[in-house]
């Protein structure tokens, strides 16, 4: 009998589908009790299979508001735009009825645009039903980077949003604060690869949040979705 090797790609696809099912179930649960639900997702290449799987889930998407945990301050036509990524892969199929709220506007910089965006984000249904976080190899999540001059503010402020600059990334960014992301009913961390598994394991070995900002979310329930 011919057998087929189970590859890392296969594992990531299964992971994406499992995460999509969990997120959809959470949204359905909250929509029974409230008029609208807020879903916060992360960008980058890792969540694309998850976005595609979630877009096929059946629920009352017209009552769901979707936004990003953070965004690069670039135009939607840029290859670096997470807005473009979400619109292409998540706001589609069943989920095409969802209302997407981008974290960019026409201001010249995130510092100039943040107050207007914060007022818009404040109109969403809070606390968010679901936050799906990612994590970088340096332990950052959203745009809370260890080397960012705005990290301490991002970890401590009660504001929803902040403008972010970091020597380790080329573009200026806007990000939800740690408190805004923490103030959600459910938190999922979606990561892949051995490197990020090691980083996440290291995060348990200390309590310096500024060294590994993902630690800001490890004092509460955090569902880890990991595949090789």
Automatic annotation (TrEMBL):
Primary role: Hydrolysis of 6-phosphogluconolactone to 6-phosphogluconate.
GO molecular function: 6-phosphogluconolactonase activity
GO aspect biological process, one term: pentose-phosphate shunt
InterPro entries linked: 6-phosphogluconolactonase_DevB, 6PGL, Glc/Gal-6P_isomerase, NagB/RpiA_transferase-like
One Pfam family from the record: Glucosamine_iso
Stated name of the protein: 6-phosphogluconolactonase
Gene3D superfamilies (UniProt xref): 3.40.50.1360
Keyword Cytoplasm: no
NCBIfam families: pgl
Pathways involved: Carbohydrate degradation; pentose phosphate pathway; D-ribulose 5-phosphate from D-glucose 6-phosphate (oxidative stage): step 2/3
Source organism of this protein record: Larsenimonas rhizosphaerae
Domain Glucosamine/galactosamine-6-phosphate isomerase, chain residue ranges per copy: 12-226
Catalytic activity as recorded in UniProt: 6-phospho-D-glucono-1,5-lactone + H2O = 6-phospho-D-gluconate + H(+)
Keywords carried by this UniProt record: Hydrolase
Protein's UniProt keywords contain 4Fe-4S: no
Similarity-based family: Belongs to the glucosamine/galactosamine-6-phosphate isomerase family. 6-phosphogluconolactonase subfamily.
EC number, as in UniProt: 3.1.1.31
